[in-house]
Every structure is written in structure tokens, then in C-alpha cells.
Amino acid sequence: MQNQKKSKSLLSAGLSLSFFTLCSRVLGLVREMTKAAFLGTSQYADAFGIAFMIPNLFRRLFAENAVSTAFIPTFRGYLESCKNPDGSENAEKIRETKEFAAATLTLVSFLTALVVVAGILLTPLIIPFFYKGDASAIFSETTLLTRIMFPYLFVISVAAFFQGLLNGVKIFAPSGFTPVLFNAIVIAATYILSPRMANPARAMSVGVISGGIVQALFQLPFVIKTGWWPGIASLKKAFTNPGTRKVVALIGPTIIGMAAYQLNDLVSTALAGKAGAGIVSSLQYSLRLQELILGIFAVSIGTVILPDLSGMAKSGKWAEFNDLLTLALKIIALIAIPVTFFSLVTGREIIQLVYKSRSFDENSVLLTLSAFRFHIAGLFFIALNRILAPAFYAQGNTKMPTMAGILSFAVNIPLALILVNPMSGGGIALALTLASFANTVFLFVFLKKSNAVSVNSVIRSIILYSLKLALFSVLAAVPAYFVRKAILPVMSGWGRLFGNGGVLAVSLAVFAAAGIVLLVVTRDPVVRRAVQMVKSRGRKS
């Protein structure tokens, strides 16, 4: 009975977190739509994108990394020691746990405050790396926006600590809701403050720092309610606490892999900034669409299969491990490959429907479309990587995915340098897609070193199935393309929402119908098995 209650509690927490994650992604897209409406692909849009990326880079590198890989496992270890074998509380261990939490909060606050101060002072020296030639006016604006948003690193790091503490005691909803608040505040600030400020980029920047503050403050009452509010320790205790030393030791190796990924973004953005006005923002608009599609299915499937893969790895059930991994990869192919082809056919209508309004004009559409076509071509490989990584984690191996990430960075940057001049933003997007493909290859090569996993059979099966789906997608895309071409003149006068939405709806209906017919006629085994799994889980629940 106790286990059943625990399972239901975890299920409830998982569902609420999934709901808030979905809301956050939707509002994140609305935030980008707001940015598109007010800034388009102007120099101010690029300035905001660069200015926000710099503190956000440090956030991803340190705050999120420290919480997920180091603080939560260590905090959980402390919590488990707070109970004596007879179930009573151990006062000494409780005191040590609070001291550890206080030391961690102090260390996080102190170090991020130093980085913020240094960042604000050094911003004028950093910004020129993102622009080409004499652009003194936009230099000063980007510097101002960066200085407005740099304190975001401090408040979001504190918010990340609060999230780690709450998640450590298995409270997920407040932390899951804070990104929703953040996006809502940025959107509201843009609409409310833009008429009162020199440009909308400044209004969005104020929204970012305000949203970060709210993310921290919103979680504080929940932290206090748990009884684990740590307070602040002295700097000496913060640096000498054995728990914080353990956190630092745990986070060190993972920073290398994360740094390679973040450096990837940094260099790509710098190249985009030098390629011309609007390239940075158009790449960001394109990536937001790709991330939304990925977030709907790839991350969810990767999260769902990890516990099963871990159990099979621990039990040595490698045949079942291979079978589940192959099935997950095929399901990803079944979704990602058709989505890719449909997006290639209707990319313009997707971008116009989501972004085109006010400042986001026809030139902005063309810039974003040139990037989107190459970004979406890499969707399948990025999705595969999100599934392959859990196959390593299930075996307790975190080094190989990190190494694959570093090697893909080594592929991406030279390609971006070569392709940016002849292809502008499209070249940077193509470089990322080719690097994602290389990352997939590296992951399969490293997985092959595990004698327990029959990689050759997995690869052969995935390649054959992917080729079949690519052929089906081409066959389905042909009628969709001609139907789209035929109805475009009719729908062009219906406005942004109904015109583009109507073209997409009709094209999708034709594409989906053709694809389903092909899958049914060939009795696709993956579709049948996926349906059986859903029915089986439904009966169990």
C-alpha cells in the first residue's frame, strides 16, 4: 500500500511537471513571437539576442549543471542520513545538512555575484567580438542591454538552488511553474514598457531581470515551508564545508562537456553577428521552432525509457535492452522524418503563421526560412542523440556522451567558419545539422565499445527503417506540395492566421493521409507495436 501511494505521488508530480513544462514551452514560443513582433530581425533584435545569451550561457554552464549533477545527489545523501535506523530524527545530521545547504547557497551567491560584477565591467570588451567593422551605435546598445541582464545570472542561480532544494525533498510543482512566470513577465514587460522606453529591446531586458527575480522569490515560501531554509553561512564555512567540496568535485568534470556545448553557441553567435544584421535573431527564431518540436516528443521518449533501460542494464537483460533501444529509435524516426519533410514543404507558412507581424516583415521571413530549412534537416539526428544518451546513462556512463559533444563541437566550428561566407545564416544552420549527424555517429561508435549492446544490428535496423520512412515521406510530400501550391492563391487574401493556417491544415491533411495509407498498406511493425504498448500501459493504469 505504501509503495502504491508513493507511485501515485510520483506519477502526480510527474504529470504536473510535464504540464508546466508544456505551458513553459508554449509561452516560450509566445515570447519569441512577441520579440518578432516588436523587433523583427533588426539590429535591436540581434543586440537583445547577444546580450541575453551571455549571462544565459553562464547560467546553463554553472547553475543548472551544479544543481542537476552535484547538489541534488549530495543533498539527498544528507537527507537520508537524517533518520536513525529506528526512524527517529538525528539532530546532529539535521544540523550538518542545514550547514551544507547554507554553505552551498552562500557559495553560489558569492561566486555568481563576482561573475556579474566582472561581466558588467568587462562587457565593453566582450561585445566587439560579436560584430563586424564599425558598429559603435549598436555596440553601445548591446553593452547597455547586457549590463541590464547580467544580474539575471545571480537571481536565476539562487532560483536554481531553491529548485534543487525543493526537488531534493520531492517537491516539483513550484519549480516547474517558475519558467511559466518568467515567460509571462517578459511578454507583459515588452507590451507595457515598450512605449515608455527608447526601444522594445530595453523593455524585454527589464522583463528578463524582473522575471528572474520573480523565479527566485516565488520559490522562497515553499523552501521555508519545507523547514530546510538554510540561511547564509560565512565565506570560510562556505569554502571549507565537506558537502560543498563534494559538489565542486562532482561538477568539475561535467563543466568540460557543458563548456564545449556552450562555446559552440558562443562561437556560432559571434559568427552570425559578423555575417550581417538580422542573422543572429533569425537563427534564434528558427531554433525556437526546432526546440518546440523536439520538446514535444524527443525529450519525453528519452525520459520515459531511461528507467527501463537502467533496470535492464542492471539485470543484464541486454537482448531486451537492445530491443527497447531499437524501438525507441524507430519511434523517433517515425515522428521526426515525416515532420522534417513536411516542414521543408511548408516552412514559409509555418514561419509566417508563428512570427510574421508588425516588425517581422518579408525580409525577416526569408532570413528565418533560410536557417530553418537547414535546422529542420538536422531534427532527426538531434532527436536520435536525445535517445542515445540515456542508453549510456543507463549503464552509468556519462563520459562518452560528453566526449561525443566535444567532438561534434570540433566538427561544427570549422564547418561554420567555412560555410558562413557563402551561405550566411543558412551556413551556420547547416554546420549545426552536420555536427548533429557527426554526434550521432560518435555516439554509435562509442556505444559499440560496450560489448553488451549489439550496435551493428541496431544501426542496420535503424538505417533500413529510416530509408523506408524517407521514401514514404517523399511520396507523401509530393501531393502535399502540389495541393499547397494550388491553394496558396486562394488563401493568400485570408490574412496571416487563416491564410497560413488554412494552407498548413490542408497540406497536413493530405500529407498525413498519404503517409498513413503507406504505413497501413505495408503493415508497419513499429506502428503496431507502439499501439500495443499504449494499450498495455492503459490497461495497467
What does this molecule look like?
There is one protein chain. This protein has 541 residues and is mainly alpha-helical. It is 86% helix and 0% strand.
Question: Secondary-structure blueprint of this entry?
Answer:
Blueprint: H1 2-39, H2 43-80, H3 91-126, H4 136-149, H5 152-168, H6 173-193, H7 200-226, H8 235-240, H9 242-275, H10 279-315, H11 318-355, H12 362-377, H13 379-393, H14 399-423, H15 425-448, H16 455-491, H17 495-521, H18 525-540
Put the structure in a nutshell.
By secondary structure, the protein is mostly helical.
Roughly how much helix do the residues carry, as a percent range?
over 70%
Write the element-wise H/E pattern from the N-terminal end onward. Answer: HHHHHHHHHHHHHHHHHH
What is the mean pLDDT?
86
Strand count, sense and barrel status of the largest sheet are: none
**How would you classify the helix and strand content by structural class?**
mainly alpha
Annotation, overall tally of beta strands: 0
Low-confidence stretches: 1-8
Number of helices: 18
Shape: globular
Instruction: Estimate the strand proportion.
Output: under 5%
Gap from first CA to last CA:
16 Å
Q: How much is the radius of gyration in Å?
A: 24 Å
What would the keywords be for this entry?
541 residues, mainly alpha, 18 helices, globular, disordered N terminus
